[in-house]
Structure formats: C-alpha cells, structure tokens
Design goal:
Elements (H helix, E strand, L loop, with lengths): L7 H13 L2 H8 L3 H15 L4 E4 L2 E4 L1 H21 L12 E7 L1 H18 L3 E7 L4 H8 L4 E4 L10 E15 L12 H6 L2 E4 L4 H9 L8 E5 L2 H9 L5 E4 H11 L2 E3 L7 E9 L6 H20 L1
Parallel strand pairs: 3-4, 3-5, 7-8
Antiparallel strand pairs: 1-2, 5-11, 6-9, 6-10, 6-11
C-alpha cells in the first residue's frame, strides 16, 4: 500500500485509541460515532496486518505492534499540527489550561504547591491540581488523560514505551523529632535510633528505606504509630517522642514552619530519585512543555537551596 492511499484521519484515530484505550472515549474525543471509530480500526488492522488492540474487559489493550507504532504516530501528528498551528508565539501569561499532577502527599508539598505559586505569578490562568498517586494505575491515568504529569518519589521504573521519564534529581531522607527531643541533642547510636519509636506513614516508603539501611546493623526500626496521612504523622511527631522520616527537601520547610529538629541518622545518607513522567502525546504541546520546564527549573533551585 502506498502513502497516498492512507487517509490521515486513520492516524488520528489510531492516536486517539492509543491514548483512550476505548472506542467510545476515542469517539467522544474526536467528535465521531463509535461505529466510525470501529470502522477505522478495522481499516487500520488491514493496513498494518495486526490486531493493534485486543479487548480486556471494558478496555482495549494495545498489541506490541501498536506500541511500536505509537511514538512514530505521535511525531507525525505533532508535525502536521505544527504546520496548521497559527504562527503566533506561545505566551504562558495569555494561556488558560488546567493540568492534573499525580503524586504522593510529600510530592504535593515539595513540588506541586510551590509550582502552583510559581505559576500564579507567571501564568495566572495555567492551573495545576493534585491527585493522589495510585502506583501502577499512574500509567493508565497518563494514557487516558486523567493525569497530565506524575511526580514519582518511589523510583519504580515504568515499562511503557509511550511514557516519558525525566529525572528531576535526587533527594535524601531526613528524620525529624519534636523540639526538645533527646535524640536531637546528640547523634544517636544505631541501637538507640532503631529502638526509638517511629511513625509509619501510609503511602510514604521512607521507613522501608530506613530499615534497609538499619539492616547493615542487624536492626529494624520500632514502629509505635501508623498514620493514614503525612499530616497525621506530623501531628503525631509534634505531640509525642516518636520520630518521622520524610524527604529532606520537605524536612527543611517543616523545620522552619513547625520547629522540628533533625535527628542525625546512624548510617550513610539514603538517596532516592525524583522523577517526572508524562505521556508522549504531550511531547509537542507548548503549554505542557512550558510547565515541565518550570517544574525542572524549580526542582533544580530547590536542591541547590537545600
């Protein structure tokens, strides 16, 4: 089959199906009927000699061939859109967009809230909202447009060719105690550090990383409280002798605002990556790219200041 025989709308349909994983949602996105999308999918299967999508419950799962085609299709359509786009340069101060950022509570406090304040000054109509991170569901959320960015502080590398990953840098873990806590006055030995009560915060892998470091001393942190959220954990730490371990860039702010004292850890610094993820369909989106650049810029400043 020659290029002149292929309708460009078929590539638009393929791109929508790759993003939405649903004939119905792709039809809604393109303003077409579901039967038209199904007909286009049948034609695409004939052209590429592959099923392209197979059904799994209510979803369409792309085949290996579809995933192989995805980056090229996105680039082709982005190039076509750039040809048709008005020549007026992008101006964030005149742009109105809403973005959803999926991350943990710690990620929201460390990066999303400062980014939100930064955008209020530079682009008041570009808004970022926080949604709770959901582990493996993050990839699906990026593909379906429920999230536009994922800020990952757990370091689990996604195995998905259509997901972009940018390392923002590294952070460390810091252990905090209430003002006047005995362990904040002098560096504790590993045994004292482990035996002191620790708060395990749901969704924050900090204590798991601490236990890996303590394993070198054949020790495990004693957990005296389990908190359903970071806020609950911080309140527990302020009103008890229990310790709480959080990302160091967040700890710096908590020390200033709430008077927490840093407890010296009896092991080498624990580093973990901060990573930004997004779907490749936004690679050429000027506003999305601008927000990415601002987030990269802010995260760099944050690490320098720490």
């Amino acid at each position: 089959m020659h290029l002149r025989e292929i309708d460009a709308n078929l590539l638009v349909t393929l791109d929508a199906l790759l993003v939405d994983a649903s004939v119905t949602r792709a039809a809604e996105r393109l303003g077409r009927s579901a039967s038209a999308i199904s007909h286009a999918l049948a034609k695409l299967r004939e052209i590429f000699g592959d099923e392209l999508f197979v059904r799994a419950g209510q979803r369409l799962v792309p085949t290996a061939k579809a995933l192989e085609l995805a980056p090229t299709v996105h680039v082709i359509l982005a190039g076509m859109e750039s040809l048709l786009r008005p020549s007026k340069p992008f101006d964030p101060s005149e742009t109105s967009r809403d973005f959803a950022v999926a991350t943990s509570e710690a990620g929201e406090l460390m990066l999303v809230q400062p980014l939100r304040l930064r955008l209020q000054r530079l682009a008041p109509n570009v808004r970022v909202g926080w949604v709770a991170t959901r582990g493996e569901d993050n990839i699906d959320a990026l593909r379906n447009g429920r999230s536009h960015f994922v800020i990952d502080i757990e370091g689990a590398s996604p195995q998905a060719p259509d997901i972009r990953v940018l390392r923002l840098g590294d952070d460390a873990l810091a252990t905090l105690a209430r003002p006047g806590h005995r362990l904040a006055r002098a560096a504790p030995k590993a045994e004292s550090f482990a035996a002191s009560g620790h708060i395990d915060v749901h969704g924050l892998p900090a204590l798991e990383l601490v236990n890996r470091a303590l394993a070198a001393h054949n020790l495990t942190a004693t957990v005296t409280s389990r908190a359903s959220s970071l806020l609950s954990g911080l309140l527990l730490a302020l009103n008890s002798d229990a310790l709480i371990t959080v990302p160091a860039s967040l700890a710096a702010s908590l020390e200033k605002q709430f008077g927490f004292k840093r407890v010296r850890q009896p092991f080498p610094p624990i580093l973990f990556p901060l990573r930004l993820m997004w779907h490749s369909s936004y690679d050429r989106d000027e506003c999305h790219a601008w927000v990415r650049a601002e987030l990269v810029k802010f995260s760099g400043e944050m690490q320098v200041s720490d």
